[in-house]
Every structure is written in structure tokens, then in C-alpha cells.
Amino acid sequence: MPMERHTHFRAGHSRQAYATRSCIFLSCFTRTDCRAKDPARGAFPSVLNLFNTASRRNRLSWRTVGDLCLTHVRRTPDENAMNAEYAGNAAAYFHLPEARILRSTSLHNADITITRLTATKNTVNLTDPIPPANAFVLSLQLQPLPRHELWLDGKREPVTPYGRGAISVVDLAARPTAFLPTAFDCIQFYLPQATLEQLAAAEDRAPIRELAVPHGAHDPFVESIGKLLLPALSEARAPRLFVDGLVIALHHHLAARYTGVRVREPHGPGRLAPWQVARVKAMIDAHLDKSLSMPQLAAACELSPWYFCRAFRMTTGIAPHQWLIRRRMEKAQEMLAKTDRPIAEIALRCGFSDQSHFTRTFSRMTGVSPGAWRQPQ
């Protein structure tokens, strides 16, 4: 029976129909040509490998088989564009509750998203197949991962146990699927190719096409980025400039270390000119209650985002997002002292997400709550 007859599914069929066809497919496939290894003949050997491996662990349902079959058929460009939804709900593919997501939305292309995924033993097992997309996923392990299995394009990828701080990269174009029987805790960075290209263009450098990251490599810089992001990935709200700054630093690091392309460091005095400092401070003061992006500030100074971040810190001694928080606090203290506006209104006018967020930040920086600070001394 020609295998090509089984590679096309019509839109509108139910998942049960796909699962039923998958059962028929597996039955027919195992009776026909189990030795087929030519990718041009279809994706069925890869599906069968997944089925055999997972079924030995009694973790693969027929519904999942149907999903595997659907994932391994060819996709149109429009379908690939739709797969960016992985960035918006990565936890769903791991059978986990919806997780908090940080976004770097400063660019015109798809968002770079950052998600923390945490699971206990036997919570995930076989992941749902991740549809192909023009994007990388960089994972940072926050605790040891003693055992897992990985398939790329249906072929088993050699992996070893990961230690705390280990990183790995998968190209979503390779249709990754994983078996995760143990507990894990990791941060995932979703890096769309189009956004990486735009970041590279802003820095006048070659875009990242491949990331030669060995599975389980330890990278102290990426680990430090992850630690800085942990509070923002819990309940606290992170300023957009904070996330943008870390994403820009991460992109520079990945390009310099894992692409094989020499990254030129910027030339110049390394500090902002007085007119640039004045312009940035004026922009921040005018947008305390709004969301500014790092590329916006860099463009106002006629600099690349990477150079601007470095120059701003060298000039002021702090990062742009820290300057923003300081100015928000100064404005809030002024309003508390000179007006009788409600604290909730002051919080919103100064760019905090709500009164609770404002109170936490104010108390951390001053040692007292806004209400106590407002009381006559």
C-alpha cells in the first residue's frame, strides 16, 4: 500500500477521526515497509519510533498518536505562521497549567517570550508535538534533569542528564518532541527568527541562523540572566525596559559565543553625550505612566540598542530600567506629599500596574509603605 495515501488529512475532521486513522496507519505501516528510512517517503518511521518508545512506558494514548501523525505531515507557510501560539502558551504542550509569560515586544516582529515551566515527577511524560516554526527555544535548567529523551524530526537525539544551570537549544523547525518522566524546573526563551534578524540589523551584524549549543552545556552568563528574571516570572511586574535590556544582552551573548561569527564591539567613547542624556531623561519623564522600549530610547540617541545600554550604564551608573523606577518613585513621593489623590490613582499615574505593585516597590525602596510615608512627620 503506498504510504503517500496516508499523508493527507482534510480540515474539519475530529481528533477521534485522526486517532482512528492513526491506528489504521500504524497497523498498515507495520505490515508494509518498517525498514523505510528515507525522509522523502514520509514521516511515518519517526512516528512509529515515538510510539514504540512511549508505549513501552504505557504513556502514549491513541489520541496522542493522532496528534503525532498530524504534526509530522507537511505544513503550509500559513500554518507555520500560526505556530507562534507556542510562544503564548508553551505550558500547554507540556500538559502544565498556564504559566506567566514575559515579553519583549519592542520590535515589529513576533515577541520574544520568556516562560518558567515547572513539573513534578510523572506529570508530563510525553509532550504534545510542537508544530514547526521559524524559531529557536533556549532552555535553562533551574534544577538537575536526571533523565529525558528528545526527538528532532522524528529521530532520537543523543542527550545526557542535565545539571543545574545547563542550557540547550532546539530549532522548532525540527518538530521537537520530548519524554520527561522526572521532575523539572526550567526557563524557556522563545526566539523567533524574524525578531533575531531585526535585532541583528539594529546592531549592524549578521543574523543568527544557527546556534551551536551542545546539549547540557553550562553557560554562567545565561544562568545569570535567568536568575535576574526569576522575580519577574513570579508575581512581580517587570518594567518593559528591564526585559528588553536582558533580551538585548542575551542576543549579543548568543551571537558572540554560538554562531561562529565574530561580533564587533562598538567603537567610541563609551559614554552618552550631554544632549543624549538630556533627551533620554526627558523621554522617561514624559512616559512614566507608559511603556517605553529600549530601541525607542536608543533611536532617540541615534545609537544601537546594545551600545545604548552599555553607554547609559557607564554614564549614569545604573541601567535604564533602574533610572525609570527611580523617577517613578520620585514622582510618586511628590504626589504623595503635595496632593490628596488616592494611592491607587498615584500608582497608575506613575506607571505601576496597581496599588499592590506600587506598595511593594515603594516599601522595598524606602522601608515604609506609601500610606505611612504620607503621614505628617
Plain-language structure description:
This protein is of the alpha+beta class. It folds into four domains: 3-74, no CATH class; 80-258, Sandwich (Jelly Rolls), CATH 2.60.120.10; 274-317; 323-374, Arc Repressor Mutant, subunit A (Orthogonal Bundle), CATH 1.10.10. It has helices at residues 15-32, 44-55, 62-71, 77-82, 85-88, 90-93, 193-202, 220-229, 240-258, 274-286, 294-300, 305-316, 320-338, 343-349, 355-366, 370-374, and strands at residues 101-104, 112-119, 125-126, 135-141, 149-152, 155-157, 166-171, 177-180, 184-192, 217-218. The strands form two sheets. A six-stranded antiparallel β-sheet has the order 1-2-9-4-7-10. It has a four-stranded antiparallel β-sheet with strand order 3-8-5-6, covered by helices on one side. Keywords: DNA-binding, Transcription, Transcription regulation. Residues 278-376 form the HTH araC/xylS-type domain. It comes from Paraburkholderia silvatlantica. Pfam families: HTH_18.
Largest sheet: 6 strands, antiparallel
Bulk shape? globular
Structural class: alpha+beta
Give the ordered list of helices and strands.
Answer: HHHHHHEEEEEEEEEHEHHHHHHHHH
Name the strands of the widest sheet in spatial order: 1-2-9-4-7-10
Q: Look at the structure and name the CATH superfamily of the largest domain.
A: Jelly Rolls
Total of DSSP H or I helical runs spanning 4+ residues: 16
Question: Under CATH, the topology of the largest domain is which?
Answer: Jelly Rolls
Name the average pLDDT. 77
Number of domains: 4
Tell me the CATH architecture of the largest domain. Sandwich
Helical amount: 40-55%
Rg measurement, Å: 25 Å
CATH class of the largest domain: Mainly Beta
Give the terminus-to-terminus CA distance: 88 Å
Q: List the uncertain runs.
A: 1-48, 53-83
Strand content: 5-15%
Keywords: DNA-binding, Transcription, Transcription regulation
Pfam family, one: HTH_18
InterPro entries: AraC_XylS_family_regulators, Homeodomain-like_sf, HTH_AraC, HTH_AraC-typ_CS, Tscrpt_reg_AraC-type_HTH
Domain HTH araC/xylS-type: 278-376
